[in-house]
Specification:
alpha/beta, 4 helices, 5 strands
Length: 115
């Protein structure tokens, strides 16, 4: 089966964010694996403890990652420079990383999907 890395660039309130989550669910159901979900640009807001999330996708990502053992990585540069979020403001299961972590995961993956 295929190993995937997902890159989510949309905020939790956007439908593309929900689409990314449903894509991940479907891929896992079909037997594929996900090694990392990398949140970039407005996507880093998924990791914020208090966020406008009408779809409940932030918590859904946490549950899916725990259940299937993949990483939820927020771009540290975007978190710090664009949104000025402190590590205390981040939800459980989300870690800070950079494009190096994303590139390494992408190099090992069979496919990369961006939302």
């Amino acid at each position: 089966m295929t190993t995937l890395v997902l890159s989510v660039h949309s905020a939790p309130a956007e439908t593309r964010s929900l689409l990314a989550y449903h894509y991940a669910q479907a891929a896992l159901t079909l037997g594929h694996s996900i090694s990392q979900v990398f949140f970039y640009q407005a996507g880093v807001l998924h990791g914020q403890r208090t966020v406008a999330d009408p779809h409940g996708v932030t918590q859904a990502w946490q549950q899916l990652a725990t259940q299937h053992g993949f990483e939820l990585v927020l771009c540290a540069t975007v978190v710090e420079q664009d949104y000025q979020l402190s590590p205390d403001a981040l939800a459980a299961h989300y870690t800070l990383g950079g494009l190096t972590e994303f590139s390494s995961a992408a190099a090992r993956a069979d496919k990369i999907m961006q939302f």
